[in-house]
Design brief:
By secondary structure, the protein is α/β, with parallel strands linked by helices. Helices cover 46% and strands 20% of the residues. Helix 3 packs parallel to helix 10 and helix 9 packs antiparallel against helix 10. The protein binds S-adenosylmethionine. The site of S-adenosylmethionine has 23 residues, from helix 1, helix 4 and strand 2.
């Protein structure tokens, strides 16, 4: 695994600040492109998330579900539609946990760093049937903490339980920014195997509507750059570009097996 670390990055401070100054989907999504574009980008996430969940996860009414990095609660709302036995959410920030606790008074939320194995084990005593971790893993830039995160998830899951998450699965070497690291498919698959996970489904989560971190295609890179610049300049353009791209995106995520950007996975814990 790469030792390429970003020593000055403090995830809690970064996320507290980002979520405080950007409410709703702009804080948890791609901040630069604004609320309107993010709404369309989350609409595709919602579509793909529910498609993979309904196809692979049965009997959720008896399930205890844990959502890691709940942010604004987007996936809490999705899980609620399946009427599971319980939903618990964790987030590294106080701001997210206090907003979520106010919004969903019947659910439990904890301020926890999922890569902190000891704190996680001390706080969450139960095992879960399903754990979701959407658009969080590539923000854990420290390689050791990334590794510990998989151990933590494995510890919290029942045998036969499901881990549903998004990641970039890049085919080349891992690449990193200060708050973001796109790990290679090989690294992620190794970590899953080491923690007794077997992938049962991996498919595109998005295709055009997010940065093409797993592509060298000049046209895709150019398209994303223009989209980001135009959406950042005007909320109306953000809305229009999102609305035009959405139906194309829906088709692309169902047609292709690999994506130039994020993918969604369901892995089962085998023992
Ligand atoms: C990009 S947002 C995604 C939020 C939500 N899952 C979604 O997809 O809308 C990342 C979220 O993960 C949280 N987070 C980042 N690192 C974390 C960690 N190590 N443990 C728990 N939560 C973390 C952040 O505070 C933030 O709310």
């Amino acid at each position: 695994m790469s030792n390429n670390q970003t020593p000055n990055f403090d995830p809690q401070t970064y996320w507290e600040k980002r979520l405080k100054s950007n409410t709703g989907l702009t804080g948890v999504g791609y901040t630069l492109v604004g609320e309107h574009y993010n709404k369309w980008a989350y609409k595709i996430r919602k579509h793909v998330f529910n498609k993979i969940v309904t196809k692979n996860l049965k009997n959720l009414t008896n399930a205890d579900i844990l959502d890691i990095g709940s942010g604004s609660g987007f996936y809490i709302d999705e899980w609620l539609t399946y009427h599971p036995n319980s939903i618990t959410g964790i987030d590294i920030t106080e701001i997210a946990v206090s907003r979520l606790s106010e919004k969903y008074t019947d659910l439990k939320f904890h301020k926890l760093d999922i890569s902190d194995l000891t704190a996680t084990q001390q706080t969450l005593k139960q095992k879960f049937h399903t754990i979701s971790c959407m658009d969080v893993l590539f923000h854990i830039v420290d390689d050791e903490k990334y590794k510990l995160t998989f151990q933590s998830v494995a510890h919290l899951l029942d045998n036969g339980g499901y881990f549903i998450f998004s990641e970039n699965f890049v085919h080349d070497q891992s690449t990193s920014l200060s708050h973001h690291k796109s790990r290679s498919k090989v690294e992620i698959e190794q970590l899953l195997a080491q923690n007794n996970f077997k992938i049962i489904s991996r498919q595109p989560f998005m295709y055009l509507m997010n940065e093409p971190v797993d592509s060298n295609n000049f046209i895709l890179k150019w398209l994303w750059k223009i989209t980001a610049i135009v959406c950042a300049k005007s909320a109306l353009f953000g809305y229009l570009i999102g609305a035009i791209t959405f139906p194309v995106e829906k088709l692309l995520v169902s047609l292709f097996k690999e994506s130039p950007t994020s993918e969604i996975v369901i892995a089962v814990k085998t023992k």
